[in-house]
TrEMBL record:
One of its GO terms (cellular component) is mitochondrion. Pfam families: FAD-oxidase_C. GO terms for molecular function: D-lactate dehydrogenase (cytochrome) activity; D-lactate dehydrogenase (NAD+) activity; flavin adenine dinucleotide binding. This is D-lactate dehydrogenase (cytochrome).
């Protein structure tokens, strides 16, 4: 989503979800805003499937097209590593400038493809999966972008999510206390750790 429409959280009205115990619940109404109880929708929409399984999301539909020009510019066997970071708007120019300088100096084909109006920008890094040094270079560029964003009071991901690839950055961004709180929430809603295990929360985090 771009600056005109907001993030996914801003565009999900409510959710019908399945809890780890099999119970189906609804998180809200179709009203655009509500002050009725805890905001379960916003909690769950960013959980990457680690708390519940979404059965029927209600979303404001927005046409969005993705441009994959990098694939046309690279050999057929190349793969794309996509990454995103987000920083305060006041630090955006600095973050893009530092990142682009590093990307341009790389031997890999890189392209910034962003809606930068909300401080979020994405990069596609093309590499040959059969060349380990190219994969490592792509990882290095991703690492550089993330640490640049974090040093500018930003986040390791504005839209793409944490998954497993960015778990290693969460403690630096959020602190150990926040991660323990997230772990406690998951232990209550998913005590047997069956909902997308191994994602989002680093495995070393203990309650």
């Amino acid at each position: 989503m771009d600056a005109g429409y907001g993030t996914m959280r801003d565009n999900v009205i409510n959710l019908q979800v399945v809890l780890a115990n099999g119970e189906v619940i609804k998180t809200g109404s179709r009203a655009r805003k509500s002050a009725a109880g805890y905001d379960l929708t916003r909690l769950l929409i960013g959980s990457e499937g680690t708390l519940v399984s979404a059965a029927q999301p209600e979303i404001y539909q927005i046409r969005k097209e993705a441009l994959w020009a990098c694939y046309a510019m690279a050999p057929n066997n190349f793969e794309a590593m996509t990454t995103d970071v987000c920083v305060p708007l006041s630090r955006l120019a600095e973050c893009i400038s530092k990142s682009k300088q590093e990307l341009d100096a790389s031997s890999l084909l890189c392209m910034v493809i962003a809606h930068a109006g909300d401080g979020n920008f994405h990069t596609i890094i093309m590499f040959d999966p059969e060349q380990e040094e190219q994969r490592q270079e792509a990882e290095r560029l991703n690492h550089f972008m993330v640490h640049t964003a974090l040093s500018l009071e930003g986040t390791c991901t504005g839209e793409h999510g944490v998954g497993t690839g960015k778990m290693k950055y969460l403690e630096k961004e959020l602190g150990s206390g926040a991660l323990r709180t997230m772990k406690r929430i998951k232990s209550v809603l998913d005590p047997n750790d069956i909902m997308n295990p191994g994602k989002l929360i680093p495995p070393h985090v203990c309650i």
